[in-house]
Design a protein that fits this description.
With about 190 residues, this protein is of the alpha+beta class. It has six helices and six strands, in the order H-H-H-E-E-E-E-E-H-E-H-H. The chain has one domain. Strands 1, 2, 3, 4, 5 and 6 form a six-stranded mixed sheet that branches. The two termini are about 30 Å apart.
């Protein structure tokens, strides 16, 4: 996995302030150009997830070139109240464009009124009340793409790469294959 990630992410910052893109970024943009052609396939999966989870809201979260993955956000039902809930949970599923792997994790967000106070990604075990949703997302990605779940212990492997704003020694395979900021969702 590290060898794959190195094809698209640099181990230094020598191109940060240059006008010409790095060879890694040129490859990354080229790969996204190819993968954009598969977006209808991704949308079909999202529609299938919405049918399987009728009480949830399923959203696409694929900002091309910002993340090296297609992304799905699933918002579980919440009580209808006039004010936004203080704590919300979201199930996030990412399918890497770099390798045939995926991940499903949760994001917990806390609000004060309508203002976001904090957001935290939970890459480890899925909370019990969200496991059914996470399982449906995982099975959908596996069925549509034949991808394999990247084990957490592998995903958390540190890599000496610069991935967007993530820098070594904090960068992991998770960041290089899925997203550099898993807590930053809609």
């Amino acid at each position: 996995m590290l060898a794959i990630a190195r094809r698209y992410w640099r181990a230094d910052q020598t191109h940060d302030f240059r006008l010409d893109p790095s060879p890694e970024y040129v490859r990354y943009e080229g790969l996204w150009d190819e993968k954009r052609k598969e977006f209808n396939r991704w949308e079909a999966l999202l529609q299938e997830l919405q049918r399987a989870l009728p009480d949830c809201k399923v959203w696409d979260y694929t900002p091309p070139t910002a993340n090296p993955s297609f992304g799905a956000l699933v918002y579980p039902p919440s009580e209808e109240v006039t004010h936004r809930p203080q704590v919300t949970w979201t199930v996030a599923g990412y399918l890497s464009i770099l390798a045939p792997v995926y991940t499903v994790h949760c994001v917990r967000r806390e609000f004060l009124g309508h203002q976001l106070r904090s957001a935290k990604a939970f890459l480890g075990p899925i909370p019990l009340e969200l496991r059914g949703i996470a399982d449906i997302v995982a099975r959908g990605i596996e069925a549509h793409y034949g991808a394999t779940a990247l084990p957490l212990e592998v995903a958390q492997t540190p890599v000496p790469l610069y991935v967007n704003l993530m820098k070594p020694p904090e960068t992991t395979l998770f960041h290089a294959l899925f997203t550099a900021d898993p807590w930053n969702i809609l």
